[in-house]
Every structure is written in structure tokens, then in C-alpha cells.
Amino acid sequence: FLFIFFAYYKLIGSSDSLVASLQNSILPGNLSVILITLIAILIIDRVLHLMKTPYGKYAFTALLAIIYHIIMIWWFVYQTDFVNTYYRENTFDVRGTLYLAAILYLLKCVYLYLSDSQVSHGWHANVQHLCFTGNYGTFESFIYTVSRLTPFVYDLRVILDWTVTQTALKLPYWIKLEDIAHEVYLVLVDRQDTKDIEQLKKTPASPYPKIFKYPIGVSFFGFLVAILVLPLLLYSSFSPVLEENSVASVQCTLGLDGVPSLWSSANLKLSSSGSVTLNNTMVSLLQRNRPDLVGYDFVTNNPQIFLMSNFSNSLWSITPPAMELLLQQLASADKDIGFTFTVEITNTASSLSNPVLSSSQRFALTPEVRGNLSRLLINQTGYMTLPNMFVPFFYNKAGQQMQSIGGGADINREQCRLYLSSQGTQGYYFAFTCQSLFAKGTPLSTGDFNTLSQQEWQCLNRDYCENVESTAARTNYSSSNVFVVVTSSVVLNAGILQSIGIVAAYSTFVLAIGRVIRFALSGGAYRTTLEDMEDPQYLVCLIEFMMMIRGRKQFILEQQLYRELVDTIRDSSLLEKRTRYKQD
Hints:
Largest sheet: 5 strands, mixed
Radius of gyration: 38 Å
Distance between the termini: 51 Å
Structural class: alpha+beta
Helix content: 40-55%
């Protein structure tokens, strides 16, 4: 079941993955049908076992053998044809599907062999209540514990056994009998373990053997510590599943409330990656003169700078009635109207479910800007100044959100100009220019130091310097293309862990496991009566006798034995008397 669940995409030669299907919350229909069919096969097999029908079991096993071999032959032919069509000379075993199919085929052969062995040797007269309880050794008890802790396996088996088996007990009594048999088996396992340990001791007064103590203690303690610290490592900067992330492209848009976007432009291709990475010298200058950017660790995250085209990618068209309404809104001081500068980026990290992020900044128009914009629209040509416009610095946080940084200081806001040109009957188009990043320009390459002024170099060579990029000083900066500086954090490439987050991981996963462990380690005082029985053989005999009587359909005696078992456990003194070691 689990093998097919995880290996399905490999077996069918699909390029999809299980992680992608789980993230999209959609599983292939064929996989769902296969898993449901496997569950139905397990149920039918269990029912035939409980009903002790050898001919039905034999026919069912033979039918499964035929179906499995037909499916295997069909899969082989399908994969061979698929490879010849899509992979040409490459064989499908190169893609790792052949060994998975071989493992699956061997598992099915083992299942068929066990079924045939059961048919050939026949059934035991008494069907045991608990599976894997024939021996009390460490390995057998481990297999039993795993099977009992597997979700729904124990619960479904108990209810199915009671439904099919002919018994006089009600379902709650049957479940109680299962619990009693479980506790008795644990006592027998503990007695066997104690016996093995006593044989290793030199004297009865010797301490617990280190050969048992250290493996158990170290492994259990290490497991608990790993549960506590593993999320810290997975969600830290030292995590082995971190993936570098950068921005592949940027799209900027300048909009005005109520009308189509005035200006829109994509980044220029300054390099093969489409951006320029600021070197440490330039980053150090930014950190000295723009302290609001220091907290986002520009040096470590290698900030990228993108330059936009001055001219809009599209014409701006507006109908005469819409233009008239816009001019009325600009003339009315009661109307709230403003510019919106939107930046949309595309991330490169492959683990991101949504690589496209955007961030918008809105600016209300002052009366002066309203008047200048009205005159620009009426004249249909010219330019206007936009003081303290947008913030060009952005922090791309793990591909989950993008936020502008440094917006609290005017020094980080761009001083821009908006130009309008007419194309006659075709319409209008806007151009957009802003101040450069540094005094003499915006870098066009990583080593473009010509953009730094003498004052900026002096600032870099001193331990302390005055702010050479103050608002007053930046009025003399050169006019440049609109630029955007983006610093991106690393991305956690861990599938579902990326969407959960460290707080949710601790509040659900870690705390849930902690509660289960606390429940398992506590409450021993209340179970002392059953767990510390000297010799549970009396209870073992009652349970085995009940199974034998049930097989002979003596249901009155079955009820009497069940009542005897329950009364014995209810009376602690009677339980102690009947489970005491018999002296020879």
C-alpha cells in the first residue's frame, strides 16, 4: 500500500511528483482507485481467513496471482512502448522504474506465497485475538507494537473480526477482551525480557546491564532531543534544505485612480540575468547613508538592481468624457485621488508554489501636484515634477511576500518627473524618469564605480562621514531610468514545511508528539495491578479457552468465561491470588 503510494509516479513514468499533488490537494484518480482496491483485497483476505474457507481462500489467491501477472505484463509492454515513443533509445530502467516494479512484484509474490502456505497448512482451530503474539521475544514484540500503533489497522481489524466471527459477546465486550489480551501479552513480554536480563547479570545484586541500558537510554533520549531541535535546524539559516532565491524579472506600473495605467515598463536586460548585483562597496555606501536599510542585511543577500525603460510600453488612451471627469476630480479638493506605483517580481526558486509577488505604494496628490497634472493633461505635452514619490528598495521575503523598506525617511523616496507626449490620433504615451541611485548615476554593471562622486568616495574612506545623500544633496543627482533594488532571502525547499512555518510546526507537530510521549510514560501507577502480575498464565488460559469454546459454538460457556475473566481483573485480591507463582 505505502510502496505504491510513494512510487506511483515513477512506475507510470510521470514527470509529476507526490509532493506536487499533495500541495495542490489533488491525487490522480487511478492512484485513488488502486489504493481503494488494495484495501478491499485486504478486507476480503481477512474475511476469508476468519470464515476458514479453504476453497474460497484458494480461489481468491489464484485469481490475485493471475491479475498481478496480467498487470505486470501490461505495464512492461506499456513502458517499453512509452520509452520507444518519447525517449527513443533510452530504456525505462535508466529512469529508475524497473527496479521499483521488481520490488513491487517480489512483495506481491511474498504475499501470494504466505497465502498459499496458509491454505496448504490449514487454519488453527482457534483464531487468536492478537496478531504477531506467538512469541515473546524482542523482535516479535516490536513487530506487534508497530502493527498496533499503525493508524486504523488495529481498529479496523477489531471491528471486522467481531463482525465476521460468531460470538456471544457484544462489541464493547469484544474490545475489552482485546485490551485484556493486549495487557497480558505485554506482561509475558516483560517477563521474558526480565528473564533474559537476569541471565546476563553476574549476581542478583548487579545493576542493570549496560548492554541493554545504554542503547535504550541513548536512543530514546536522542529521539526526544531530535524532536525538540530538528525544527530549529530545518527553519534556521544552516538548514540543509535551503535554496538560493533571486529575482528573474521586474514589471513596474504607475497608475492613477479611476483611469488606465499611465506608465508601465519591464526591466532592461543589463546582463544575462536581467539585473546588476551591487558590489560590497556600493552596498556599504548605501548602509552608511541610508540606515533604514541596514536591518535587511543587504551585503549577505546580494541586492539586485533593475532598470526600467523611460518610456511606457503601451499608449495611454482615454475617452473625452472620462478625461473631463478626471479633470473635475483633480480640480475638486474633496475628491481623494492619488498615484499608485506597483512593482511585480518573478522569483527563480523552483520550490515556490507562487513565484510572482507584487507590492504597491499609493500617494495622495497634493494641491500643487493636482494643478500640475491638470495642466499637463490639458496641454497634452510637457512634464511635471513628483516630489517624494515611491520607495525603490524592496525586501523579497522567502518568496512569500514583498515589502518596501525605508519608506519612513524622505531620503529613500525618489524625486521623479512624468512626461506626456501626444501621438496625434493614436493617443498619448507617458515617460517616467527619477533620480539616480548614486550622485553620478545608476550602476549599469557590478563594477561601475563611475556612478560614485568624490564626496561618496570620501565617505567610504572615513570611519564617519556626513550624510552625502541627504534630501537637499540629492536634488543635484542626475536624472536616470526608474530603478528598483531588491534583496531576496533564501527559500526553505522542504515541500509542505515551507507553508507550515516554525510556529505551526512546534504548536502542532512537536507538542502533539510530546503529549503522546507524556501519556505513554505516565499513568503506570494505575496499571500496576495488571502490569505487575507474577504469573499471568491463569488469564492466558481463560482467553485461549474462550477462543476454543467459541470455535465449538458453545456461546453460553463463552459468556461465563468472559464474566470469570472480568470478575478476576476487577477484584485485585482475587487477581493477585490467581496470578501468583505456584511453588513446586
